[in-house]
């Protein structure tokens, strides 16, 4: 069997359709996603495509590439549906959707080129349903687009590597593609992209003890293409920010993450290995089962290439102080391919007693995660909203037997059918979460509910919301960039100075301070409504009142 363009197109379409549910009903996910969306919207409305800003503050975390993509997507949506769409979430999520639809066929092609069509399709399926990939592909953040870019230059590396194996010439276009993809990666995420970009060829160079294949990528002049992509913007932002961008983005953000855990994300080495059971579920246990086969076949050129992709990247991000699950997402396609190869073409090597015990223990964890995942939607919906959804119950009834079947098949040592059952359970459970659970979780949809009340009661078109107790970026995105996130006394002063076009959002615990400050100015207020819910970003329960001058 050989995969054709039609097969790859069908894979992309399936991924596109699976990533669609929940895209429009999913609220802005605090805190990173609304910052991306708001900065992109401000870029579009201000016409400033160089200096990225969130409200009046510079957002100097990475270059402007992802904001250009999201702003372009929002601009197209605005032309088609009007300016109101700029305060919707879905236009900013389109780049992630398109990237996801391209990542899966590209993974299938790599798997097929290395181990055959069946392995390529299995690898694509394992990646497509993995928890972290599904989550990231639904959000307007950088990670899915960055994964596509990394996959592009890894594909060019693979092409050059395979040409060396076949003793065939490598096209100059492959070299150009590699260096241009690195340049695009620098525009997306800065120097971080050089970790997989250079570590893979360096590791291969060390393992193969042969640099001839690297010369196929024309490094003597290729780096100029990479710089040509990123240097114009670098010069522009250096001038506009007076050098502040590089001191913040590289000095504080990039190097700061290496030495210190930023934003309470400092964790010890081993974190990524621990969360892998959930992040790559349902493929995580099959990846663990593949380790003996990978070790046995470690001298195969294809395996060396994939391990040179995985190991350096993983080690770097285990060693740096700041850790988030998506930091090792770029290794998942390679892990999926190796896992698929173990499921489809490699035999099962004999295992020691302790290896069997370790795999059995990990299998129990995997099964517990899978069963919890099947029940999660129903339990969360009932616990938070005191309701049951017919669609979520149907999803549970569909996913649970498949998960049970996967466990039973694994006990009987039928790994490949078990993988198919687990992937089916994942698809159904994820559909239930996005279609039935998340749209009904009103308790945590504070920002959308506040924005709806704000639209209903605002006295004039230029009304500003002053929020004293709820300061999530999603509120700024949904209500507007002029939203003021200040304390109760400052809010009272702002209301007194701008009584005609101001609304105040105050939590019950801050209301006394807010009213006392207003009493000193003899300004009376009227309450237009209250919203109660959970701020899931910090776990605080809020009882928010919306006030305006009487």
Word description of this protein:
The protein is of the alpha/beta class. It has 23 helices and seven strands. The protein has helices spanning 5-19, 32-46, 65-81, 90-115, 117-129, 131-137, 143-166, 172-189, 194-208, 212-215, 219-241, 244-259, 271-279, 284-296, 301-319, 332-344, 353-385, 390-411, 415-437, 446-457, 473-479, 488-497, 508-519, and strands at 53-54, 57-58, 464-467, 484-485, 502-507, 525-535, 540-549. The strands form two sheets. The chain has a five-stranded mixed β-sheet, with helices on both faces. Strand 6 (525-535) and strand 7 (540-549) form a beta hairpin. Helix 5 (117-129) crosses helix 16 (332-344), helix 9 (194-208) crosses helix 15 and helix 17 runs antiparallel to helix 18. It is globular. The termini are far apart. The mean pLDDT is 90.
Main sheet: strand order:
4-3-5-7-6
SS summary, helix count: 23
The H-and-E topology, N to C, reads as HHEEHHHHHHHHHHHHHHHHHHEHEHEHEE
> What general form does the structure show?
globular
- The proportion of strand residues reads 5-15%
The description of the largest β-sheet is:
5 strands, mixed
Distance between the termini: 75 Å
Mean pLDDT: 90
Radius of gyration: 25 Å
> Helicity, in percent?
55-70%
What class would the helix/strand composition place it in?
alpha/beta
Tell me the total number of β-strands. 7
Task: Return residue spans where pLDDT drops below 50 for at least 5 consecutive residues.
Answer: none
